């Protein structure tokens, strides 16, 4: 009789990435076909300076004017980069698709993981919806500029929005490798497209604002404080309302985390991809925003800031460049936003797959399945459908502005950043007992993590306040269409989650569920 084998089951055959994943408790289910550049590319594509910078530009100008662009952007970007560094350290130590809530579960227990996961999932669904809606708006504006359509219509925008959701859903159902290629192409489209926009905005307009105007002019088109630009309200409320431009644009970089199970050498490359996507987007976005601001049209020798909140960059492009050039720039941005929306849905579906794998989402068996191409097709479809539902209020407008769109952007920012804050705080609390990965912040985590959490809380609170008098229930001009329903949705969901956790979830949600044999896990402990 041959001697009984004593070898460990399959452990010696695992790659370094698979061994790291096995140590975290998961088997390799998704195709690990992404390079480090592809991992950087998806976060860079989701940040998309040609999307966020341009779709929310009107909010920046309305809430502060040029100073809200020229000063707020670089200052807030530094804080976001610090947030990125703290998350890079975490993904290096624990590179999993559901990394954000996985970190919280491991550092703070099942309850922390449960709330983090749901905040992250809500934020990802909202950011996918908001980007797709912004993309639809820009394609509609492009066709208007080219004379292909007659008048702006929110109904038309919503129809385009649904078509875009269907398109990016189909693309996401195909192979993971195809998505990696698309995101690689997206990087170069964003780089070349942004450079093209900047050159056109410098060369074509007949006149530009002065350096002094771009860096010192103030404007208050929010409707608050009677348009004052010198009161305390202006400096401590109006300008912070404009932070949504930076905070919304530079978000979604957790895609590098959610795609880490599909990335080669994830402990280093995902960490690097995350912070580098923030850094390069901050620099490129600032150059682009300054070029747009310098090109703001002037009427009777004075900058026409008042026309921008409703018209956004489309008004600037059309007035300063003419319909042909303006339409071309809108088209370049629209295509970039389509890349961005595709990447957003990829990230959302991977997070939903991972969260469902740990049985935290109703119907988890459906959402945690992968198809023949090893992609979570059911999660892709479900995430797109949810995005369409939460954007329905954008069919209504106030003075031509779909304020619900800005509410969805606020929900995405609040959900995502609050979900980041929980594991960042827990890592800070863990102190030197935290087992760092190959990429880490050293002793600097002691102040970096604290600064990151404070910034997230402060900006999150600002984004839940009424951004217009029309959205304030105590004002005579109150209109439900203008309500910033971000706090209603976020706080309402948190209340429901608290009830769900207290009455049911705490009895069955125990955190990450191991999907690999214990012997394989023990082999790498």
Description:
A two-stranded antiparallel ribbon has the order 1-2. A two-stranded antiparallel sheet has the order 3-4. Helix 8 (110-145) runs antiparallel to helix 17. It is mainly alpha-helical and 525 residues long. Residues 1-11 have low confidence and may be disordered. The chain has 23 helices and 4 strands. The two termini are 33 Å apart.
Tell me briefly what this model is.
The protein is mostly helical. It has 23 helices and four strands. The chain is 66% helix and 2% strand.
Brief descriptors of the model:
525 residues; mainly alpha; two-stranded antiparallel ribbon; two-stranded antiparallel sheet; 23 helices; 2% strand; globular
H/E topology pattern? HHHHEHHHHHHHEHHHHEEHHHHHHHH
Termini gap: 33 Å
The major sheet is characterized as:
2 strands, antiparallel
Number of helices: 23
Which blocks of ≥5 consecutive residues have pLDDT under 50?
1-11
Structure classification:
mainly alpha
Shape: globular
Could you report the average pLDDT, rounded to the nearest whole number?
88
Tally of strands = 4
State Rg: 23 Å
Q: How are strands sequenced across the largest beta sheet?
A: 1-2
* Helix proportion: 55-70%
Residue fraction in strands: under 5%
